[in-house]
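Section handout 9: paired folding examples.
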Amino acid sequence: MRRAAAVASASLLLACTPSGKPVPSRSPGRASADGLNVVLVTIDTLRADHLGTYGYKRRTSPRIDALAREGTVFDAAYTYWPKTRGSFVMIHTGRRPSQNGYGPNHPVLLGFNPTIAEVLQKAGYATAAFVDNPNVAAQYGYSKGFDTYRQTWEEKDLVTEMDRARAITESAVKYIGEASAAKPFFLWLHYVNPHAPYTPPAPFDTAFLDAEAASGPRLPVVAAFHGGIPRQWAVGGQDRRNYYVAQYDGEIAAADQEVGRVLSALEASPLAPRTAVVLTSDHGESLGEHDYYFDHGEDLFDPCLAIPLIVVVPGAPRERRSASLASTLDLLPTILDAAKVSYPPDLAGTSLLPEVVSRGGSARSSPRLYAQNERGLTGAFDRRFKAVAAQGDSGQRFALYDREGDPGETRDVSGTLPEAFREWRRAVELFIEQGDREWARTRPLVQGHPEGEGKMTPEACEKMRALGYVRDCPR
């Protein structure tokens, strides 16, 4: 991405207090005259450790790696919720489920929550989204605040995943080319690659079929996601885990190419010096770790939680790496901070912008992060320890992992490190208690909203079936 011109310097950035909290904008809810454009790129199911900028050996991500050199890479970024629909509720609201009402009875983005797009729209921004994955359908609330919301899976002429990816790119290129310098914009792009099934287009379907892809243990085909290759993802004659990993990498490379086309269009635009870019994912993917294959969301281990996060802001230092813990909950305050727009109340995240614009080292660091999933797991973690609580019939069960001594999180050390276990168990318990108090305030806001998610369109159902979310679609 083009280096920022002098005109897009620190004057575009929100001043912060020593604590890292934002100074409110001069006119709450309104954009300043030099409002910063923001492009948010999210790539479904993308593990950080399969990108070159995070040390991966395969050349899966040359364009994303180049973007990373233009700004700040967060080396310890995690999703709060390792499943697409819930993850994007957290991203767009900056709130936890106990605050935004997301849950099994209301698996949608409920309307009482301000979103990134809605806040920016009210501040005078043009807003547009071009997305793939029916989990973020407008009927579930995700189009709130967007002037334009293109749902590519609803278009029958876009037959393949790559057809839809290219359509997203083409829409973005056109949007950037037609954007007005007189009105700032917020643009969200969501690519579904590399979500399973891993079926990259040529030439990426053979790009990583090297000796490593042909080696490794053979796996049986199984009915679910444990013990081998899930039947719905199995390719005839391919029974090695490494083949599927190579195809996952091919899908990353295909998505990287599309992202590169968008970045090239932005570089060629006169708006580039006034445009921030944020690139991340909704969650990772388990590629066999913990005997869990080619899926995500079932556990709170790092393969599903660890995600890339790259933030490029005009005038900020280049080639920065941050070791600070970062969460998807931080995206809303970070984007609004950069745009000089006041936050909604009661956010669970904090702005990462001080970390991006600081020239004197680390400016912000959370002592620990939290995560939850739809199976009732709650986790708390820092760089060394991760504690996970599971709700069972006989109450809560806790486990503790020492991530320094056991990066794979394979051994529960709650019995061998009792003092650390007591501390982390209490941290999780306090967090759960906080959530209970928040639910007491949120529940009245949720009441009156219809339960469930409503009927899917036939196109959405077929796409959800292809992604493995539903088994059958009505005929």
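Moving on to protein 2 of 2.
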Amino acid sequence: MALVDHRRRLMPRVTVVTATYNWATVLPFCIASVRAQTFGDFQHLVVGDGCTDESAEVVMAAAAGDPRIRWVNLASNTGHQWGPNTEGIRLADSDFIAYLGHDDLWAPNHLENLVGALDAPGVGLVHSSTLLVHPSSAPTQFPEPGWTYEPPEWIPPSSVLHRRDIAVEVGGWTAPEPDSPSDPEAVLWAAIADRVSVRWVPRLTCVKVSASIRRGVYRERPCHEQAYWLDRIGAADDPEKDLAGAIGEPYSLAVAPYRRPVDERLVWAVRTRARRLLGRTPVTGEERTRLRRRFKGLD
């Protein structure tokens, strides 16, 4: 029993999973965001989806000898974050799972706030508020005041912390289903919500710089936006207050490097609520995945 208790104390409380594919330039900013957390009892698994670029070398350099950070690369490409996230959960030694997209960032108090909320009895998933950084308009906040989660609504994975055992119990991440109107993350959140409570922590601690509304980013591999937001967070006396101040501010940093302006409202409709696209025709999971991959420069 003493050996079991000792091993248990050595396990991290949180496993942070970052799914990535051939976009190594953003990884130093993502990793720096995790290393800056005020809650330090974590391991960070950066899981490549069959990466063939310099991601492994970049992760090792960004980790700077930090034993909490580990690089893992899948043998083949699954084409979606569900593959790396599934491997991350499988490898996790922790009670809790967090996600940070390779192109997203956290405020330093992100994990600290969410771990405290997830410790409440009966709660299985918590999420913070997210600053959605659009490429050609002012940042917005998700969710808006008064929002209540109703399955199978979308919640940004980078804002989520959930219990590992519940995710395993419900089957974890699954591949996109051709006829499903919901993304794999929305399906997982809904399955968890069937068993335990989902709680919104209304603290603005996540910055989402979504590839889904930035044309060709996987070809051009920019990282200037991540650099800007990480520097801004690091320089702020109160990062959360500074991010809140960015809501509605003019923002044009993303426009120049991309090929042409994007109707991000259209793409976000597909991304979040499985609404209708182009003439209000239904979008299947297979069509949605194909459209996103082509838009982002993956195909």
